[in-house]
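Format notes (please read before filing issues)

Several people have asked whether sequences and C-alpha cells are stored in separate files. They are not. Every record keeps both together, in the order shown below: the sequence lines, then the C-alpha cell lines. Line labels are part of the format and must not be stripped during preprocessing.
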Amino acid sequence: MKREGSKVPPTSLVKIRDVANYIRQALNLGSDKVNMVDLLESVLPQHIPNFSFEVVTRETLGRDEARAYPDENIIQVREDIYIAATDGNRREQFTLAHELGHLVLHAGLGNSRSYARSSSGHRPYEDSEWQADNFAAEFLMPYERCRKLKSKQEIFETFGVSTAAATKRFEKIH
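Then the structure lines:
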C-alpha cells in the first residue's frame, strides 16, 4: 500500500494543472521535455530567491530518495538518485519533479518533516504526496499536449519519462 503524505489544504487536479502550466510558462519551458537536473541546478536558482538544490548522502535522507523544504526553498536529493538522474534515468525525472511539486504547492504549510504524517483520515486531494505526484505528471507531461498524442509510447518518447509514468498518464487522459 502506498504511504500517504501529510494532510494539506485540498487542491483539485485542475488547480494543480494550472500551477504546473504557470511554472512552465514562467520559466519559458514550452510544452517539450524538461531536463529536471538542469532545471534544478541552473534555471530555478535564477528565478526563486535563495533556492538551493543539494545532493546529500543516503544517511542524510534515509529511505527517502529526495526531500523538499518548501519554506526554505530547498530540495535535497540522495546522491545515488542524482547520479541516476544525470545518467538519464527516466524515473528520476519524475522524482525530481515530484519534489518541485512540494516546493511550489506546499510553501507556507511547514517543512516536509514538520507536520505529522498519517495513515488515514484524509481524502486524496488533501494528501501532500498525491498533490506532488499529480504536479509531477502535469509538469513533465502537459495535459493538452498529451491529449494529442496517440500512445503511451509517444508520451514516453516525447517527454523522456519512465514507461510506468507514460502508461499511467496515457490511461488517465485517454
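For reference, the curators noted about this record: The chain has a mean pLDDT of 92. The longest strand covers residues 52-56.
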